[in-house]
Design a protein that fits this description.
The complex is a heterodimer of chains A (about 110) and B (about 120). Chain A has about 110 residues and is mainly beta. In chain A, about 0% of the residues lie in helices and about 45% in strands. Chain B has no helices and eleven strands. In chain B, strands 2, 4, 5, 6, 9, 10 and 11 form a seven-stranded mixed β-sheet that branches. Chain B is globular and about 40 Å long. Classes of the chains: A mainly beta (about 110), B mainly beta (about 120).
Chain lengths: ~110, ~120
């Protein structure tokens, strides 16, 4: 069982916005600004999309944004495109030199 | 271009050992931490182990502590994972990933390899 809770699935139509949640505790998500998000297409390696809650690596479209409130972090994908269909994983530093991942959310573009 | 290429995966019996390697290129290897993350078939990601740039700090997930050893050779731009006492639940794709060089487990990984599959089965 994953330390961070994500919904197993999410969906939206092209052009719409979708938000994926990642719920932890005050010992991980709520305690550190070290939440990151990864995109993984089937059979491919994960790709960093968001780090330190809301920062975007170079090359990641600004359609992807991250935020946090209390013990829950969120990834919002705006202007959905077909290529956004993939698994999305959150992760958070949880102290004591451990890193937790969420169970993943499969985003379907309808 | 940053490249991380894993090798060494394969089929091994429970209780056996395997050594994974990761060859890095396209960046200054000695200024980054290196890490292993695994993914069991059809499952999510799990952080396994991290090592700082000079090997001063090494960290392990509880699930592998005492069985796995992470190391690196900065002269060869290579990362390793020695896996002993393997169990069926260690079956996964093992990814090599680059992280910031810190005294703690890096909070995120900005580049990943394509992974190597380890299957533990009799």
């Amino acid at each position: 069982q994953s330390a961070l809770t994500q919904p197993p699935s999410a969906s939206g139509s092209p052009g719409q916005s979708v938000t994926i949640s990642c719920t932890g505790t005050s010992s991980d998500v709520g305690g550190y600004n070290y939440v990151s998000w990864y995109q993984q297409h089937p059979g491919k390696a994960p790709k960093l999309m968001i780090y330190e809650v809301s920062k975007r690596p170079s090359g990641v479209p600004d359609r992807f944004s991250g935020s946090k409130s209390g013990n829950t972090a969120s990834l919002t994908v705006s202007g959905l495109q077909a290529e956004d269909e993939a698994d999305y994983y959150c992760s958070s530093y949880e102290g004591s030199n451990n890193l937790a991942f969420g169970g993943g959310t499969y985003l379907t573009v309808l | 271009e940053v490249q991380l290429v894993e090798s060494g995966g394969g089929l091994v019996k429970p209780g056996g050992s395997l050594r994974l390697s990761c060859a890095a290129s396209g960046f200054t290897f000695t200024t980054y931490s290196m890490n292993w993350v695994r993914q069991a078939p059809g499952k999510g990601l799990e952080w396994v182990s991290s090592i700082s740039s000079s090997s001063s700090y090494r960290y392990y997930a509880d699930s592998v502590k005492g069985r796995f050893t992470i190391s690196r050779d900065n002269a060869k731009n290579s990362l390793y994972l020695q896996m002993n006492s393997l169990r069926a639940e260690d079956t996964a794709v093992y990814y090599c990933a680059r992280g910031a060089d810190t005294a703690m487990v890096p909070p995120y990984f900005d580049k990943w390899g394509q992974g190597t599959l380890v299957t533990v089965s009799s």
